[in-house]
Amino acid sequence: MHPMADVILARDPALFLHILLGVALIPLSIVILLYLMKKVSWLKPLAIATAAVSWLQILPAGILYLNFYPATKTLIKAGSWVWAHDIIMETKEHWGLLLPVITTVAAALVVTNQPDKSRKWWILLIILTIAIGIMGRIVKIGAGMQA
Amino acid sequence: MKFNHYLGAAVAAWLLAIMVVVAELFAPFKDFLIATFSHHWIGKAVIVALAFVIGGFLLGGKNPISKYSSEDVAWYSTLGGLAAILAFYVFEFIT
C-alpha cells in the first residue's frame, strides 16, 4: 500500500479532515449568502468549490464510518444511550449523503444566474451541516454512557 | 443534453429514503448492497450520486409533475426525504 494511504486511512487525519471540511461548509455558505446579490466575480467559483468540498467530505466520512465507527457502535449498543446509534447515527449517516446533492443544487443555481433561488438551499445546507455536527457530538457522548 | 439539477435532487432524495427503509425491512436488499459495494452505506452513496446525475439528465427539460414547478418538487422532496429518514429510525426504535 502507498505510504500516503496509511496517513489518509488513519483515524486522526480522517477525523481532522472530516471536521475541517464539514465546518468549512458553514462559513463558505455564509459568505456566499452575504454576497449572493452582489455582482462579484468570485461567487460562481466559490459556489463550485463549496459543492466540491461537500462531495470530498464523503471520503473522510466514509473512512471513519466504515473503519472506526464499528468500535464506537459496540460501546453505544452496550450502554444506556442505544438511541444514539439507532436513531441519531443511523439518521446522520444517511442525511450526510444528501448534503452534496443539496450543495450542488445551490451551486448550480448560482452558476446559472439564479442566485435568489439558491438562497434557501444554502440556508438548508447550513442548518443540515450544524444538525449533523450536533448529532456527531451526541453519538460521541453516547459512546461514554454506561448501562 | 440538458441537466435538471432540481429533478436530479428530487430523484436522489426519494431514492435514498426508499433505500433506507427497504434495506432495514428487507434483508436481501441490504445483502445485495453489501455484496455489490462491500458496504450498504457505500452502495447507497454510489446509487444516490448516480441517481442525481442520471435522473437530472433523463428528466432534463421535463417536469413529470407539471402541476408543481421543478423547484418545488426538489425542495419538498429533499425536505421530505430528510424527514422520512429521521421518522423511520424513530419509528423503528420505538417499535
Write the layout of secondary structure elements.
The complex is a heterodimer of chains A (147) and B (95).
Chain A: H1 3-9, H2 11-34, H3 43-56, H4 58-78, H5 83-111, H6 115-142
Chain B: H1 5-25, H2 27-37, H3 40-58, H4 70-94
Helix pairs in contact in B: 1-2, 1-3, 1-4, 2-3
Largest sheet of chain B: none
> Order of SSEs of chain B, N→C?
HHHH
Instruction: Note the overall shape of chain A.
Output: elongated
Query: How would you state the average pLDDT of chain B, rounded?
Result: 93
Determine the most extensive contact between two protein chains.
A-B, 25 and 29 residues
The quaternary organization reads as heterodimer
pLDDT < 50 stretches of chain A: none
Through-space gap between termini of chain A: 40 Å
Distance between the termini of chain B: 47 Å
Q: In the residues of chain A, how many domains can be counted?
A: 1
Give me the Rg of chain B, rounded: 14 Å
Number of helices of chain B: 4
Structural class by helix and strand composition of chain B: mainly alpha
Q: Mind summarizing the main beta sheet of chain A?
A: none
Q: How many β-strands of chain B, per DSSP?
A: 0
Large-scale geometry of chain B:
flat
What does this structure look like?
Chain B: Keywords: Membrane, Transmembrane, Transmembrane helix. Chain B: The chain crosses the membrane at residues 6-29, 41-61, 73-91. Chain A: This is DUF2269 domain-containing protein. The complex is a heterodimer of chains A (147) and B (95). By secondary structure, chain A is mainly alpha-helical. Chain A has one domain. Helix content of chain A is 84%, strand content 0%. Chain A has six helices and no strands. Chain A starts with a helix and ends in a 5-residue tail after the last helix. The mean pLDDT of chain A is 93. Chain B has 95 residues and is mostly helical. Chain B has one domain. Helix content of chain B is 80%, strand content 0%. Chain B has helices spanning 5-25, 27-37, 40-58, 70-94. The longest helix of chain B has 25 residues, at 70-94. Classes of the chains: A mainly alpha (147), B mainly alpha (95).
